[in-house]
Amino acid sequence: MVSKKIKSITPSFTINISAKVAKLKSEGKEIIDLSIGEPDFMTPNAGKITAKEAIDHNKTKYDMVPGLIPLRDSIVKKLELENHVKYSTSEIVVSSGAKNAITNALTAILDPYDEVVIPAPYWTSYPEMVKLCYGVPIIVQTDKSNDFKLTVKQLSEAITDRTKIVLINNPSNPTGAVYSKEELEPLIEFCINHNLIILADEIYERICYDHPFVSIPSISERAKEITILVNGFSKSAAMTGWRLGYTASNIEISKAISTLQGHLISHPSTIAQWAGYGALKEGSEDMKHMVSIYKNRRDTILPILNQLENVGYVNPQGAFYLFLDLSAYKKFYNNHDSFSIAFCNQLLDEHQVAVVPGIAFGNDDYIRISYATKIELVIEGLHRIQELLSFIKK
Ligand SMILES: Cc1ncc(COP(=O)(O)O)c(C=O)c1O
């Protein structure tokens, strides 16, 4: 009954894990859930207030397809002030979450069989999104020694005459790695010279701990011209349920995205857009507070990670994830198709800790832990991981 296209799509690993956790909880089990990529903070107050005002003042009708003008104006200001890149209001299209922003961008650019380069490890939805938009995901293996960041050499080996887009997620989910300006510049130069569009998913951009974040389109006028910037409110403003994201791109692309959005969803809920407007206008202290807490957690966790036996990890400089290398333990799971799935199932069933298997991100040697949850739980979760590792070795 359903299309071949939908049959080629893998259901989301993270959603499957959440379903399993919910089932175990409903059976009365206490689970430490380190699998979710959702901030444990609430919507900034300013956002709640503007959303309530919008309802009370009946700002509940259809509005402009690319988004409310006051919201797009404040996105323009944010990008200029915080990310040092100047867009016009008409270059912004507000969407229902960054997910919708990414699929808008892919749909606007890709013809059937066009290729999209995706560095692995990748956020689990990218390859499926590319397939849904009739493209072909080209997964590029990157190096652990470089914190899994894409290099020009790897990119040059991956492109063909069908390559249209290079996807760069910075800071990265699942690794927490962050690209420096020096690492981005040659990649951008390569994309300019090879007529490639950069789809820059910078949704974790505010959650960046050690160095000022460098946004790809801020690097040069040419970088801006070839980049579709994706950002949103889910992670840095803890507004996951409002479903609010956006793209910033050149006018040809923003018009194309707006045209297709006009037919698909018109625009995201106006109430959500007013909430985003409030959060951007007056929520910056709340957002800074959240980032300082994530940073404290990261700093508390690192010494514990260093004590885990034979466990490596990617240096977490941003986002709120830890990507742990458990390859030293793979040999104990030889009779399983996927090491990371078998390990995560055992951890959940026997130690009541939920984490995400690395295979969901294209690397079966790893597991992903989220620290967007109370630090005591993360510490307890890591202790239980150590318990399981010690048990496996015996
Ligand atoms: C890298 C990355 N991009 C995009 C998204 C989607 O965000 P949104 O909730 O705004 O759709 C996520 C959510 O987990 C993510 O991790």
Automatic annotation (TrEMBL):
<feature type="domain" description="Aminotransferase class I/classII large">
    <location>
        <begin position="30"/>
        <end position="379"/>
    </location>
</feature>
<protein>
    <recommendedName>
        <fullName>Aminotransferase</fullName>
        <ecNumber>2.6.1.-</ecNumber>
    </recommendedName>
</protein>
<dbReference type="InterPro" id="IPR004839">
    <property type="entry name" value="Aminotransferase_I/II_large"/>
</dbReference>
<comment type="similarity">
    <text>Belongs to the class-I pyridoxal-phosphate-dependent aminotransferase family.</text>
</comment>
<dbReference type="GO" id="GO:0008483">
    <property type="term" value="F:transaminase activity"/>
</dbReference>
<dbReference type="InterPro" id="IPR015421">
    <property type="entry name" value="PyrdxlP-dep_Trfase_major"/>
</dbReference>
<dbReference type="InterPro" id="IPR015422">
    <property type="entry name" value="PyrdxlP-dep_Trfase_small"/>
</dbReference>
<dbReference type="InterPro" id="IPR004838">
    <property type="entry name" value="NHTrfase_class1_PyrdxlP-BS"/>
</dbReference>
<keyword id="KW-0032">Aminotransferase</keyword>
<dbReference type="Pfam" id="PF00155">
    <property type="entry name" value="Aminotran_1_2"/>
</dbReference>
<keyword id="KW-0663">Pyridoxal phosphate</keyword>
<dbReference type="InterPro" id="IPR015424">
    <property type="entry name" value="PyrdxlP-dep_Trfase"/>
</dbReference>
<dbReference type="InterPro" id="IPR050596">
    <property type="entry name" value="AspAT/PAT-like"/>
</dbReference>
<keyword id="KW-0808">Transferase</keyword>
